[in-house]
Specification:
Two copies of one chain form a homodimer. By secondary structure, chain A is of the alpha/beta class. Chain A has a domain of about 240 residues: TIM Barrel. Chain A contains 17 helices and nine strands. Chain A starts with 7 loop residues before the first helix and ends with a helix. At the A-B interface, helix 10 of A face helix 10 of B.
């Protein structure tokens, strides 16, 4: 078995004692570092970068070297799964992802294939292998995928949206189509995460980015059962579930067959711990906007966060991805503050 | 004192017994009715319509005649306050509001004036007077304003945003400027709501549309104190506070000096009732997407909602504004279902 020099993340995830709180940041690869922008420039576009294993590996490792985080997360996008199922997307500058074709009928769902990761997503798996080799055990590597409901949102809506009302309309008007689509995404996602693990991912995270647009009842019908299937299927490595905005589902989250639950910054820590229970590691949840503040403010807010979470069964992170215009020096201040205040 | 033929909304707001649950919908004026679109066409633009008292009054009354709702809400926009303070906005088709000038420094805040409603917002007050005359007591008229924090978001960010990270950055980097701006907005808003009431508004609602982007701690610092000031100042008519996404502040909401708390569809009804307490009327909270469903589904979900809220201290509504592409027949189905299931 692989020997990691720094396995804080994995021990914290499994609920083992750690001498220090591990820390990493959602969206740490890409977005903020000038070194990332240089590679992105070289690649041409976001998608050209994400599909180039050498370059994707390079930007994956940058935050480990430059920021001192305790884990790498593979540089990729949750939308590679729809693409691998037969629904490609383009990434439009200043707009975000756009799907030229969307799911409108059961015939469209039937035309989708179950993703074959070794074939359709080989570029991600190759990037993971390169990262693992170049990291040579310094820190663990995190793999990830979007939650089925969040992917359904894009596949029906065709693009980002504040309300995803078109996608939600499908839930109310065509539950049969919705469940068929969710099941196909789930089957694809399980294969994909298992392939990431086989390629070397040490932990996988499921991002339910649009969980917060559902009512508690709909979340129970259209999202949780599919996340449950994924958690039950992944037994090889620890699993983290991060459902942004799903404050109403924290109690159910505590019953998932996973190791870590991510919190956003709206969620009170003590209340979340109570609802989720003591058998899960918690991850989060600094407001990304705190990193716009002074070093004093960043250190102060980080200390408040650590005091609220405690030092065991805890992985420090932001409550959402780091914002693109964050100063890397402020990010480093946050990482260093966790290391200082988070030691036993 | 004015005699209303249908005062269900006001009695429910004040916690008095009602023979039936009152119902209206956020954004009922504008957005969905073909009759509205015809007037909008005639006016030219959204702003030309909003600033034309005769036409604004006409679209305000349409839902009362056409949909049978138990209240009218004045057709206007929360952004008229920034405009009256000296920060005009334009409404760009398919983009939303844009402020050519934004608040960037304390000097910018100092340049803002406290709104003088009788002068700067005379067109709204005139519209209210026309509505009152034309309604001639059929149903109450609701006035409204944005919560100071939500208005700050637009005044600093300059446009809509998923994260309002620029506005939130100001909270962390310049609390003095933020509080000065919030106080000026609050002072303007109190004068504005009082002027609406003097012109004839029977209840006023405060919309904190972006409450959900704050952490519980920041909400306590930057939003609640200003909503509290407004609630304390408005003693003439019942006040409704609707803070979308502020699930974490429900307990504090229960202590506000107001009559009604609005809930969005993420908020569980029984839990909200427990957190807010029995001294407030609740308003909400059907997912607007339910109205995309079949009549059976709409009736079924409306019944579930009413069973959860009960028939007293309750005003039926959606959990957010009705979506523009909702079929008016489906809206009518919802209104009728409340009237059917909501009678004693």
């Amino acid at each position: 078995m692989e020997k990691l020099q720094n396995d804080l993340l994995l021990r914290a995830a499994r609920g083992e004692q750690t001498e220090r709180i591990p820390v990493w940041m959602m969206r740490q690869a890409g977005r903020i570092l000038p070194e990332y922008r240089a590679v992105r420039e070289k690649a041409g576009s976001f998608i050209q970068l994400a599909t180039n294993p050498e370059l994707a590996a390079e930007v994956t490792i940058q935050p480990v070297d430059i920021l001192g985080v305790d884990a790498a997360i593979i540089f990729s996008d949750i939308l590679v799964i729809p693409e691998a199922m037969g629904l490609p997307y383009i990434m439009e500058e200043r707009v975000g992802p756009i799907f030229p074709n969307i799911i409108q009928s059961m015939a469209d769902v039937e035309k989708l294939r179950i993703a074959d990761p070794e074939h359709d997503l080989k570029y991600v798996l190759d990037a993971i292998k390169i990262v693992k080799k170049e990291l040579s055990g310094r820190v663990p590597l995190i793999g990830f995928a979007g939650a089925p409901f969040t992917l359904l949102c894009y596949m029906i809506e065709g693009r980002g949206s504040k309300t995803f009302s078109k996608a939600k309309k499908a839930l109310y008007t065509d539950p049969v189509l919705s469940h068929a689509l969710l099941q196909k995404i789930t089957d694809s996602t399980i294969l994909y995460l298992k392939a990431q693990i086989a390629a070397g991912a040490n932990l996988v995270q499921i991002f339910d980015s649009w969980a917060g647009i559902l009512s508690p009842e709909q979340y129970r019908i259209y999202s949780l059962p599919y996340i449950t299937q994924i958690c039950d299927a992944i037994t090889e490595v620890p699993v983290t579930v991060f459902a942004k905005g799903a404050f109403f589902a924290r109690e159910e989250m505590g019953k998932l067959n996973c190791e870590v639950i991510g919190l956003d910054w709206n969620m009170d820590v003590a209340e979340s711990r109570k609802l989720i229970g003591g058998n899960k590691t918690l991850q989060g949840n600094l407001d990304p906007c705190v990193l716009y503040g002074s070093f004093d403010e960043i250190r102060n807010q980080t200390k408040i966060m650590i005091d609220a979470f405690g030092k065991q069964r805890y992985i420090a992170n932001l409550g959402h991805g780091v914002y693109p215009d964050t100063n890397p020096d402020n990010v480093r201040c946050f990482i260093d503050a966790v290391k200082e205040f988070g030691s036993r």
